[in-house]
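pls ignore typos typing on phone
succinic acid + seq
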Amino acid sequence: MATRLQETVPITITPIHPVIGAEIGGVDLSKDLSAETIDAIRRAWHDHTVLLFRGQNISGEDQLRFADQFGVVAERHIPKAGATANNSPDWTHLMPISDKADADGNPIGALGHGELWFHSDKCYHERPHRTSFLYGIEIPAEGGHTKFASLYAAHDNIPDDLRRRLNGARVMQGYDYASNARLSLDIDLDNIFHYIQPIFVTNPGSGRKSLYVSRLNTMWIEGMDRSESETILAQLFDITEDPASVYEHAWRPGDLVMWDNLATLHARTDWPDGQTRMLRRCTTLGEPLE
Ligand code: SIN
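k done
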């Protein structure tokens, strides 16, 4: 369906945290945006890694049209047959993120209810999803915030001798669709998505380096004794979650947040039982990291 082109107006870029994130003003995502506006948003995204657009009234098609300006919109990976849960509903490009159920009690969205640990979308595939676009529709009265952590700050905060030691290292990333906790290191890898990725990633947009590990997905450092890998990863997870480099977003309906999965982790806080939450997500496909 044809959409109206928004007249090109200078966007405003207002940092929302000292380390990560900016709010973008002057943009109506229900309209087509000019090439100049998209370029300005892309530059802001490279600079701030998480962008917030408040007060948007957009359809799924609007969301996909906007995402399409930043890469190929990704399709769903159906959980592997051996995964411990795969009962999320059918969708291809737009993913309802919700704990709501239909009249038969079946989930209408993915990721269910409650806290989620820090992670990076699809880091356990050869082509991780580069950008995620999450739109707030129904927000609980308390909690259900999304936290964003800067992986640039994490990289810079590793003690120098450890950073030198880890140069060139690779990590096993994995995900069990049924687990909201750290993966068992003895899990049968054939039953879950998993992929070996570099521990440090240079961002193609900014040229900055990230520490590409997360508590939910990173299983071990390749080629390292298991107990030493556990000790180092515990230290690295704490560095990625340093409260000084985390922005916690309290959602309002109509918020659209986009973020760079190569430069950030995200996590979710809990909300009370009996309150429901509904957001809508799409992502773009990234390039292989090596
Ligand atoms: C996600 O991990 O993509 C969803 C985050 C959220 O529900 O806040």
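The pocket of succinic acid is lined by residues 97, 111, 116, 121, 132, 146, 266, 268, 279, 281 (CB under 6 Å). Helices lie at 35-48, 60-67, 151-157, 160-166, 226-240. more later
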